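Researcher: I'd like a structural prediction for the single chain below. Treat it as a standalone chain; there are no partners to consider.
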Amino acid sequence: MKRLFASIAGCLLMCTAASAFNIGELKERLTDYIAGKDARIGIALIIDGADTLTVNNAECYPMLSVYKFPQALAVADYAQRNGITFADTVTVNAADMHADTWSPMRDRYGTAGTRLPLRELLAYSLQLSDNNACDVLFGLTGGPAEVDRYIASTGIDDIHIRSTEAEMHADINLCYDNCCTPLAMAMLTEHFATHLRGADSLMAEVASLMESCSTGTDRLPAPLAGTQAVFGHKTGTGDTNAAGRIIGVNDVGYVMLPHGHRYTIAVFIKDSSADLSTTSGWIGEISAIVFNTFGGQ
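Model: Treating it as a single chain, here is the predicted structure.
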């Protein structure tokens, strides 16, 4: 499997000349757009499964809640291997309902224990970025190390899942350890969109959740609203670090256009000095530059 993905990665990196679009011009537009912004911005794009573009890819960016996407793939794999359906229920203990974190699940069910269908936990995690739901899912599958091992088994390197949401909340510096390169996450998204999305009912449900994600509408989805594009994505948003900068503002997704072209895109912004609205808007503008390259269809 690792040899397979190494071959895919090599092809992706070498085949840009074959694209019907001018990858060089697109990269120049993106590079010009992010120039002068007081943040570290990394971008990766895979077009029609063949051509890649990266900007500032040679470093690890904090994933934040983006890591709930690879976690969801690991959960679906775990469920399939163990004969579990997404209708099966999972125990959520009172101790799982942390009060000092983002959790629409806790807001609905309170701080007492309950049992919820696995699909509802996934919906809270993927669609609403619920931190408590995420950690319950880690508990089900064996923790971050098991999810990390699953992702490594795909042959995609440079995605590192090391800490739970509760651990990152206790020590925000751990956010920088849960990291990836933009290209690695774009490759995982591409693999999901082209091979896993319709592979079985569990992965299809993960896709449905991503394609109805309700966070980050001002990020990658911004130029796609009202179009006929099929789009799935996952966002990540960090707290402010000791230097007063936002640890990370991210979005990754796949876009299938009605005229037949498709692309996967990952945008990671690290240590932004701007406010959240402005930083999120940068991702929306990057998304628009890419989308408009395909005629905005």
